[in-house]
Amino acid sequence: MDATRDILSAIFAFLAIPMLAYFIAINTSYLALIALASRHFAKHARRSSFTGERSMAASPLSLGISVVMPAYNEETVIVASVRSVLDLRYPDHEVIVVNDGSTDATLQILIDTFGLVPDDREHPVRLPVRGHIRQIWVSPSSEFDLTVVDKENSGRSDTLNAGIRFAERDLVVMVDADSLIDPDALLKVSKPFADDPENTVATGGVVRAVNGCLVNRGRVVEVGMPRQLLAKIQVVEYLRAFLLGRTGWSQLNALVLISGAFGMFRRDILLEVGGLDADSIGEDFELVMRIHRLMRRSKRPYRVTFVAEPVSWTEVPPTMRVLARQRRRWHRGLWEVLWKYRGMTFNPRYGVVGMVALPFYWLFELFAPLLELSGLILVPLGLAFGLVDPGYGLMFLLVSYAYGFFVTLAALVVEEASFHRYDRWRDLGSCIWAAFVENLGYRQLTAVWRLQGWWAALRGTKQEWGVMTRAGFLEEPAVTVREGSR
Amino acid sequence: MPTLFPSSVVFVVLIACTIACVVAIVLVTVMRLARRVRGSRLQRLTERIRPAVLQAAVAEQDALDNSLTVFRSMRGRARRNAESIATRMLYDVTGETRTNLTYVLAACGTITRAVSRTTSTVPVRRARAAEILGLIDYPDAISHLIRLAQDESDEVRAVATRALGRSGRPEAIAGLLAALPSSSGVPAVVVGSALLEAAEHSAAAIGRGFTDSDPAVRRTTAILASHVMSPGATPRLIRALATDDEPLVRIAAARSIMRLQTRDAVPALYEAASSEHSGVRIAATTALATFPPAWTHEVLTDLKHHPDVDIRRAASATPIEG
Amino acid sequence: MPGKRILVVDDEADIRDLIALKLGSAGYDVQVALDGNSGLQQALTGNFDGIVLDVMMPGMSGIDVLSALRQAEVTTPVLLLTAKAQERDVEAGFAVGADDYVTKPFSPRALLARVNALLTRG
C-alpha cells in the first residue's frame, strides 16, 4: 500500500506542473484563436457593403467551378441535392455526381429525372482512380451542365478523385450529397480566388449543424437549435472549434484543415498533388497538408483561406453510437495525418504551418484526450490515497471546467456579435446550457472515443475501417445520418 | 499537487473564472437584447420610411419633386434608414427608377457626404463612398471614381473600378483601361467585369490591349473581345492564338473564338491543337468541337487519333443541343 | 389596362413592391406572392391575366412554378425576372413556357411596357 502511495505521490509531483501548464495553454490558445477570429469578423463586417458579390454573380469572367458530389445510396435525397446545386447562384458551374456503386436506385433516378444520355468517349486520365468506372452519363440539354460518373464502390476519397478526373472548370468544390447548401455558397467560397487570384489555392466553407433548422426543398430557411442535448452540444462545439478556431488559423495563414463537406480547390493544384489519398481516413486533412507541403517545398507563395459565412449545413450525429464512431474516425484520421507529416512539424521550412499549426494539433488535439483522461484517473486516485485534499481537488477541477466553459462562452459572444444565426432567446439559453453541460460527461466521453480511435490506428486495423463505416450506413436505413465532416 | 499552490491562490483563480463566465453570459445576453431592441426599432422605422422610398422610386416625373420633400427634412436614424433602403434598391434597378432613387439620395444629402468621404483618411470610408457613387445616376461621380481607382488602398481601387463599370459612362473607360495591368493590384476579373458592364463604350478601346506588353492585359483583352463584340476582334484573336508567347493568353483566345464561332479560325485552332502546352491543346480542340461539323469534319477526324487522350476526348464531344 | 389582374411572385420584398407599385399605378389590379409555393397556389386559383415571376427563389424556383402551371394547363402569360448572367434561366424558362423575360437590374418602367404588350398580345 505504501509503495503504491509513494509511486502515486511521485507521479503527482512529476506531472502536476506540466498538466497545469498544459491546461492553461490549451484554453488560452483557444481564446487567442477566438480573439483573432473576432478581429477578422469585425474587419469583415465593416466591408459588408462593398463585397462585389453581385458583380461576381453576374460576370462571365468569374472562374468556372466544377461541383463534385459523391453519392452512395442517396436515392431519397439525390434529386433535391442535385437540383439545389444546379440552382446555385453562379455564372459558370458544372455539376459532377459520382455514383459510388450504390445498391439502391440512385443512378436510375438521376438518369430518369434529368434525361441523361451515355457519353461513350474515352475517359481522361488526369488522376488515378481505383474503382472501375462503368459509364459516364451527361445531360443532353444546355439547361443544366450535369455529368454523372457511375463507378464501382471504392469509398469516398476514390469517388471524389473520379469526379475530379472529369472536372473541366478552373476550380473544383467537393460537396456531400446529404449536406444542404446555401444559394450563394459558390460566390462566397470562391471569393478569395477572385480577390487574390495569384495566391489562393484552396478555400474551405464552414459547416454548421442542420439539426433543429427548418428545411424547405433542400434549403435551410430558418435556423434553430436542435432539441436533443447531444446535438445541442455539438452545435456549440462546431461554433468554437470549427467556426472560430479555423477563422483564427486562416488569419495566421496556417489553416491545415478544410472541411470535406465544402472545400474548394484550384483544379491544377489538385491534379498536381494527385487528388485525395484513397487510403487515408482523414482525407480532407491529408489533402490540405499535401498542398501545404507542395507549395512550401516549391517555394510558391500561396494561401489557404477559410470562409466563415455559413454556406453548408449537415446533420450531426443524434445518437451516441454514431457520434462515437465519427469521433473515433476523426481522431484516427488526425493521428495518421500528423504521423505521416511529422517531418513538417517544427520544421522552419514550413513556416507557420510547421512551427505553430502542426505543433498545436499534436499537442492540443491529438494528446488532449490522453491528458484529459489521465487527469480523470489520477485525481480520484489521489483522493482515495489521501494525497489530495478533497476541497483542494474539487477547487482545481472547478477551475479547469470554469475556464473551459468561459472559452466556449467567449465563442458564443463572438457568434452573437458576428453572424447571430441562433436568433431566438430559447436558442441562446440552449447554447449556454449546452456549453455548460458539455463539461459534464460529453467531454470525457469524446475523450474516450478519441483514444479508442487512436488506439485502433496504432494497432493498425487498417483496411477494415472504411468498410465498417459503409456497413454502418446500411444497418440504419431509418436514420439519415452519416459520419459527417469536420 | 498539494504543495503546488496555496489553496488561497486556487480559490482566487476559481472566483476569477466564475466571474469571467458570469460576465460573458451577461455580455451575450445584453448584446442580444440590444440587437433585438435595435432590430425592432429599425423595423418600425422601416415600416414608416420604406413606402416613401418606394413611392419616389416609381414616381412619374411630375410627381417626383413632391415625394422628395419628406427626405429633405429627415435627420439621424430616419435619414440613415432611407439611405440604406434606397441604396439597397439601387442594385436591382436601372432607368427611371435609378434616376429617382438618385434624387432620393441627393435629398438625403448622401451624395454630398459620399463625395466628401472620397478624401477621408479611412480606406473603408473611401471604399463605401465609391460603392455609393457607382450605384447612382450622377455624372459628376465619375471624376471622383477615376481618382479613387488610383487610390493607395487595393480595396478602394477594386471597389472604385467596379463602380466605374457599373456607371456605364464613356468617361470611365480610360480609368478602367489603366487598371488592366497586373501591377494595378486590382484583380483582372474585377477590371474585366467592369469593362464588360460598360461594354457599349469600351468595345472600341479594348482592341488595343492585344498588343500590350503585359500578358495579364492581353489575356483579359482576349477574354473580353468575344463578350463586347470589339470591332476587328476576330483577326486579332486568331493572331493571339497563333503567336502569343503566353499559354494563358492563347487559351483565352481559343475560348473567345469558341464563343464567336468564326470559320476563319479553324486552321489556327487546328494548329494550336498540337501545341506543346496541354491547356492550349484542350482549349483549341474544345472550340473546334463546338463549330458546325461542316467546317471541322476533317480536322476533328484527324484529332480523334491524337496521341493525347484529352484531345481525342475533346475532339469527340458532341455539340450540346439548345 | 384598368382592371386586369396581375400576380407578382418574388421573394425579394423590394423588387416585389416596386413592381406591384408600378403596375398598380398604371391601373392594374396587383396581387403579390412571397414565394414559389404560395405563388403557384394563387396562380392556380386566382384567374390572373398575367404573372410576373422571379426565377431565383428559395424552395420552389420560378421555373418550377411555371412548369407546374403549364402542366396544369394554365396558359396565363408569364414574364420571368432573371439575373443578368443566368442565360440558362432564360433558356429553361422558355423551354417550360415563359412568354417574355426581363433581366435584373431592371427598369420597372420598361417592365410595365412589356406587361402591357404581353397582355395586349395575349
UniProtKB/TrEMBL annotation, chain A:
One function term, GO molecular function aspect: glycosyltransferase activity
Species of origin: Mycetocola miduiensis
Domain Glycosyltransferase 2-like: 66-115, 172-405
The UniProt record lists the keyword Translocase: no
Similarity remark: Belongs to the glycosyltransferase 2 family.
One family name in Pfam for this protein: Glycos_transf_2
CDD domains: CESA_like
Bilayer-spanning residue ranges: 12-37, 350-371, 391-414
Key words, A-Z: Glycosyltransferase, Membrane, Transferase, Transmembrane, Transmembrane helix
Keyword Transmembrane: yes
Name used for this protein in its record: Glycosyltransferase, catalytic subunit of cellulose synthase and poly-beta-1,6-N-acetylglucosamine synthase
Alphabetized InterPro entries for the sequence: Glyco_trans_2-like, Nucleotide-diphossugar_trans
From TrEMBL, chain B:
Domain of life: Bacteria
Transmembrane segments: 12-34
Keyword list, A-Z: Membrane, Transmembrane, Transmembrane helix
InterPro entries from the UniProt entry: ARM-like, ARM-type_fold, PBS_lyase_HEAT
Entry-linked SUPFAM superfamilies: ARM repeat
Gene3D superfamilies in the record: Leucine-rich Repeat Variant
Alphabetical list of PANTHER family matching this protein: DEOXYHYPUSINE HYDROXYLASE, PBS LYASE HEAT-LIKE PROTEIN
Descriptive protein name: HEAT repeat-containing protein
Upper lineage: Bacteria, Bacillati, Actinomycetota, Actinomycetes, Micrococcales
Automatic annotation (TrEMBL), chain C:
Biological process, per Gene Ontology: regulation of DNA-templated transcription
Keyword DNA damage: no
Gene Ontology CC entries for this record: cytosol; protein-DNA complex
Keywords carried by this UniProt record: DNA-binding, Phosphoprotein, Transcription, Transcription regulation, Two-component regulatory system
Family matches, as InterPro entries: CheY-like_superfamily (IPR011006), Sig_transdc_resp-reg_receiver (IPR001789), WalR-like (IPR039420)
GO molecular function: phosphorelay response regulator activity; transcription cis-regulatory region binding
Residue positions where 4-aspartylphosphate is found in the record: 54
Domain spans labelled Response regulatory: 5-119
Domain of life of the source: Bacteria
Identification of the protein by name: Response regulator receiver domain-containing protein
Source taxonomy: Bacteria, Bacillati, Actinomycetota, Actinomycetes, Micrococcales
